[in-house]
């Protein structure tokens, strides 16, 4: 069996070589020539999977080690009887931890403010439960969920009244509630001046040109992990935001490995074989002298480092912005999630409980 895979899918050789011959290449270079005699195609979000790529190939299974599926023409795959699997929820912890880091970095007193969450699935729902455990006032907009699923469900108008807005929707352009440019000029103008807007869903959920134009007037704080027209992001917008990162919110090591494993497991199901079990030991790192929640979060993951690197690599790059953006993602350092950290010697009971709510170990 011939398996063609994005080289940025960690452990792909270890996980898939028991089933066939694995060839890897950069995701943006996967083309119809490379896949024409492949049986299996494994991608991440940067490979467009559609008729142009697959027509005439013998691909029977497509796996995407991602949550988002806007790069995959699932309708085409169904029509051609090509099996498809993605990795729902694989990196939800990573994105929640990115959000916490960004909030502590940009607005240290955010715990006392109202946080609006738009899109309350694996990421937004986990963020909601984490914030509730910390006692934060939340309101949630997700037209596909019930109030039983999300007790603080509210209308779109109400979510726009929050002082902090976190966007975690997929990118959709059809259906009853499409998200493409959901935050267009008119909607952005309804968001409180001085509010904090964070987008870690998909870039085009926010009209980036409108955001850039309105920013001076509304003095929002802005955190963007995702951008319209990635990898060619708008440099004026990067300069205008408080935190800008190269679509790495979900890039914890755990999240990326989960993605690869979930696709491998779905592939085994498709083959009708049992899923191999993994017996990996969790690496534990000790943290000491953590006097506050913000200190612990930023000690483990400080989003400001990713922001600095993005500015250093992209600003002044001219035509090679896209290459620099992709390179930052490809060479992203190993980032371990909070569950790998044990906080020692914490004498404050409330802080200990809050750390536990975020997934830190105690001991
Ligand atoms: N920045 C990054 O690294 C990452 C970005 N993502 C993006 O974030 C999105 C969300 O991830 P998950 O929570 O894991 O997906 P999910 O599929 O579990 O949840 C998405 C939620 O958005 C809701 N939704 C859909 N349309 C909506 C609308 N018009 N208004 C409000 N809510 C709407 C759905 O009902 C669902 O509950 C993904 O589709 C992906 O595009 C996901 C992981 C990492
Ligand atoms: O899972 C998703 O959806 C994401 O946005 C991923 O974190 C994107 O990572 P790549 O697939 O672009 O490496």
From TrEMBL:
Residues 12-271 form the D-isomer specific 2-hydroxyacid dehydrogenase catalytic domain. Pathway: Cofactor biosynthesis; pyridoxine 5'-phosphate biosynthesis; pyridoxine 5'-phosphate from D-erythrose 4-phosphate: step 2/5. Keywords: Cytoplasm, NAD, Oxidoreductase, Pyridoxine biosynthesis. One of its GO terms (molecular function) is 4-phosphoerythronate dehydrogenase activity. The keyword Heme does not apply. It is an enzyme of class 1 (oxidoreductase). Catalyzes the oxidation of erythronate-4-phosphate to 3-hydroxy-2-oxo-4-phosphonooxybutanoate. Homodimer. This is Erythronate-4-phosphate dehydrogenase. It comes from Porticoccus litoralis. The lineage of its organism: Bacteria, Pseudomonadati, Pseudomonadota, Gammaproteobacteria, Cellvibrionales. The gene is pdxB.
């Amino acid at each position: 069996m011939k398996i063609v895979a994005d080289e940025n899918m960690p452990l792909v050789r270890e996980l898939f070589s028991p089933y066939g011959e694995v060839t890897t290449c950069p995701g943006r270079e996967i083309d119809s020539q490379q896949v024409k005699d492949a049986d299996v195609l494994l991608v991440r979000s940067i490979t467009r999977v559609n008729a142009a790529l697959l027509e005439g190939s013998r691909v029977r299974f497509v796996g995407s080690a991602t949550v988002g599926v806007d790069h995959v023409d699932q309708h085409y795959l169904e029509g051609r009887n090509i099996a498809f699997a993605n990795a729902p929820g694989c990196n939800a912890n990573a994105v929640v931890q990115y959000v916490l880091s960004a909030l502590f970095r940009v607005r240290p007193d955010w715990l006392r403010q109202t946080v609006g969450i738009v899109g309350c699935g694996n990421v937004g729902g986990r963020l909601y439960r984490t914030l509730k455990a910390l006692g934060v006032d939340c309101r949630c907009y997700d037209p596909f969920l019930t109030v039983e699923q999300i007790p603080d469900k509210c209308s779109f108008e109400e979510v726009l009244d929050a002082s902090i807005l976190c966007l975690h929707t997929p990118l959709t352009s059809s259906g009853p509630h499409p998200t493409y440019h959901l935050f267009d000029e008119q909607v952005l103008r309804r968001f409180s001046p001085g509010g904090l807007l964070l987008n870690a869903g998909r870039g085009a959920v926010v009209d980036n040109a409108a955001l850039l134009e309105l920013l001076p007037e509304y003095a929002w704080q802005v955190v963007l992990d995702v951008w319209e027209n990635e990898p060619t992001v708008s440099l004026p917008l990067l300069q205008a935001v408080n935190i800008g990162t190269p679509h790495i919110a979900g890039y914890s090591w755990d999240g990326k490995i989960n993605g690869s494993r979930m696709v491998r497991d779905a592939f085994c199901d498709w083959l009708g074989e049992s899923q191999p079990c993994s017996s990996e030991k969790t690496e534990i790192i000790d943290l000491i002298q953590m006097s506050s929640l913000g200190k612990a979060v930023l000690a483990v993951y400080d989003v400001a480092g990713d922001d600095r690197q993005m500015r250093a690599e992209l600003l002044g790059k001219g035509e090679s912005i896209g290459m620099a953006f992709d390179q930052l993602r490809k060479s992203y350092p190993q980032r371990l999630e909070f569950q790998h950290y044990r906080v020692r010697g914490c004498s404050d009971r409330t802080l200990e409980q809050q750390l536990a709510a975020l997934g830190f170990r105690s001991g």
